[in-house]
Design a protein that fits this description.
Elements (H helix, E strand, L loop, with lengths): L14 H25 L11 H26 L5 H25 L9 H11 L7 H17 L5 H11 L11 H16 L1 H6 L7 H12 L1 H23 L1
């Protein structure tokens, strides 16, 4: 008698989580549009030092990383799915490498060696040790925040150590250091590992076309992340060269 193959575990999508990612995507597209317009002098913004724009970028990163922590728990709450881990690590690793190569080609003096995708790649692997452990996740997040604020826990020193060896640029167009940002992933893990997550799984979610559009963007966050900036930057560059 033939054995019935085991059916894969199907996890229903949580609409508000997709919409949270979609909202982060929308903010990111707006931020990069302003960045590109500023780069070609259509706008005049101190986008890398102005407190508003610095906080705007940090909000976007926070939303993405919190969603990463929540999603890790949802995918692996019945046990670590190692096949999924391997597949996701491969996809994120290739995507992060593509960002590094593309920025090295366009901005050779400021290329991205550890941006948001690199951070998500590493944090998604480290976060597996904290799934189902909300108190440990919260404690580790607190230690990371305090250590980063006091200066004794920092990845910037590690980057500076390997900078001459790996020929890393002194400046980069995007840097998302593991500390303190991994703490935000841990907060997402702690939230999703708690009892409150169960009550929020059916909702709440934004209704109407706007909510559906955000959810659609959230379900396709990675390809949008990879494609939106080349399209935006190329479009703004085209307008610049046509008008100058």
């Amino acid at each position: 008698m033939e054995e019935t193959p085991e059916k894969p575990v199907v996890h229903p999508r949580i609409l508000w989580l997709d919409q949270l990612r979609g909202f982060a995507i929308a903010l990111m597209v707006l931020f990069h549009l302003c960045y590109d317009l500023n780069y070609y002098r259509f706008l005049h913004l101190a986008i890398t030092v102005d407190p508003f724009w610095v906080a705007f970028r940090e909000l976007i990163v926070t939303l993405f990383l919190f969603a990463v922590g929540v999603a890790l728990v949802l995918v692996h709450r019945r046990g670590i799915r190692w096949s999924h881990v391997g597949r996701r690590a491969l996809i994120l690793g290739l995507a992060a490498a593509a960002v590094s190569l593309a920025t090295w080609w366009i901005f050779p003096r400021y290329w991205v060696y550890f941006g948001i995708l690199h951070l998500i790649w590493v944090a998604s692997l480290l976060g597996l040790a904290f799934i189902g452990r909300p108190l440990l996740s919260l404690s580790a997040a607190l230690v990371i925040f305090l250590g980063s604020a006091q200066g004794w826990l920092s990845t910037e020193g590690l980057f500076r150590l390997f900078q001459p060896l790996l020929h890393l640029p002194e400046r980069t167009v995007d840097l998302a250091p593991l500390f303190p940002w991994f703490a935000v992933v841990l907060l997402g893990i702690a939230f999703a590992s708690s009892g409150r997550m169960k009550r929020l799984e059916p909702g709440p979610a934004l209704p109407g076309p706007g909510g559906r559009l955000l959810a659609l963007a959230g379900r396709h966050a990675l390809p949008i992340y990879l494609l939106h900036q080349p399209i935006l930057f190329g479009s703004v560059a085209g307008v610049y060269f046509l008008t100058h």
